[in-house]
């Protein structure tokens, strides 16, 4: 259906199918990284269309197809903190023991509809009341304008396949294959494949120290207290996480009236 929609608006069939498949695969991998790795969010270091352009060149897309690919990529991958799939996976895990699945899905549908409606109305009201300049939305404006500027640049100066990027992509895939095989076959292997994927993500630049402290506490607990101590102190660390998020929620309400805020994640 999505491929038919792309073809209807001017994208060729083969690029449409390949682009949508790459979108799905990358979103699935990012979702697994977030859910399995315990990351609060994950940012991409390369956009999906960058890979297609590097392998096939800009001539792989028609002019309209190139524009559509850039816009769809902007909507889906500009910031994975707003992506729906990781939240749905967490929702599925939380509700796996719930018996009334229909009621749960109904609540999810209502929440999604209300969230979209409230977000749209709030953003529209704020932009009309204060303007984009006073809202300090320079990043949002620049990323939106940059989409069209990049497409115009490719239309003015078409690019062909990039051998260097292809070579680095093949090398990265080989390294990832080695990491996955070693992680699956050798119990003593210390490097998790997720770490390789998130190494250049801005999320790790912000969260690496928190992960280091968590890993250190986990290692010390298991080494000197065993599984019994681990089970006893586990809820303490869960409480720390919930408490931090609770402070963010409380100050979100206070900030409406007092202008104060609380950073859940380090800046």
Task: Describe the structure in brief.
The protein has 267 residues and is mainly alpha-helical. The chain has helices at residues 2-8, 13-37, 48-56, 63-77, 84-94, 101-134, 138-156, 163-185, 193-198, 202-258.
If you had to describe this structure to a student in words, what would you say it looks like?
With 267 residues, the chain is mostly helical. The protein has a domain at 202-267. Helix content is 77%, strand content 0%. The chain has helices spanning 2-8, 13-37, 48-56, 63-77, 84-94, 101-134, 138-156, 163-185, 193-198, 202-258. Helix 2 crosses helix 5 (84-94) and helix 4 (63-77) packs antiparallel against helix 7. The protein is globular and about 65 Å long.
Shape: globular
What is the helix/strand order?
HHHHHHHHHH
Strand content: under 5%
Mean pLDDT: 82
* Spans where pLDDT lies below 50 across 5 or more residues: none
- Please state the structural category: mainly alpha
Number of strands: 0
Oligomer classification: single chain
The percent of residues in helical segments reads over 70%
**Distance between the terminal alpha carbons, to the nearest Å?**
40 Å
Radius of gyration: 22 Å
Q: Summarize the main sheet.
A: none
